[in-house]
Write a structure and sequence with these properties.
Elements lengths: L1 H12 L12 H9 L14 H24 L3 H9 L18 H14 L5 H12 L2 H4 L14 H16 L5 H9 L9
């Protein structure tokens, strides 16, 4: 069964209907930009299928590495958000209902902002909620051709905005914030 599954992956990934904006993933976005199909994607930026696959794989690996680095260098609540943020956009196919998986991350992030009372990065959360909530089907007719396709993937950008929020809350960007919050956690006040 495992060998049959592995052999089916290239066929699944080469399916031409993955290049439509109904699938809000980095894979779909890269196919939309760089792979022509007469029915599903008549107006890519350029028809370079190997570039499409390369951009797809590279962007997903980079986002996962980015999320992992942020998660390793942040408070647990921020780490959870960093790891949940890319969960849908790195899949080959991600439909609207899959983005419900990001609700816990958004709730945790908003809770963290209000708990720490440091609202400098709240705009990234607002942007994330806005982009994740945009109706994709309303954008489709105006964003089919060329580079305009970048605007047809608001949920990809909303997930990245959430990951940017986590990055700004990590020790790389805000080391003082990390130490201040870390010393005020309940675990620090527990007696031995």
């Amino acid at each position: 069964p495992g060998v049959a599954y592995a052999k089916s992956i290239p066929t699944f990934l080469a399916t031409p209907n993955h290049s439509v904006s109904a699938y809000q993933t980095l894979h779909s976005l890269s196919l939309h930009l760089f792979r022509h199909d007469a029915i599903w994607n008549p107006w890519p930026v350029v028809d370079l299928p190997l570039v499409a696959v390369g951009v797809s794989v590279t962007s997903r690996v980079l986002v996962l590495v980015w999320a992992t680095i942020v998660a390793r260098n942040a408070l647990p609540i921020v780490s959870a958000c960093a790891l949940l943020a890319p969960v849908v956009i790195v899949m080959p196919v991600g439909e609207d209902h899959h983005f419900v998986l990001l609700l816990p991350a958004l709730v945790l992030a908003i809770f963290h902002e209000f708990r720490t009372r440091q609202f400098a990065t709240l705009s990234f959360l607002v942007l994330s909620v806005f982009l994740l909530g945009l109706p994709v089907h309303e954008l489709a007719p105006a964003t089919e051709a060329g580079w305009h396709a970048l605007a047809a993937y608001p949920r990809v950008w909303g997930s990245i905005a959430l990951l940017l929020w986590a990055t700004l809350k990590s020790r790389f960007i805000a080391p003082n914030h990390y130490s201040e919050v870390r010393t005020t956690t309940p675990a620090a006040s527990v007696k031995s």
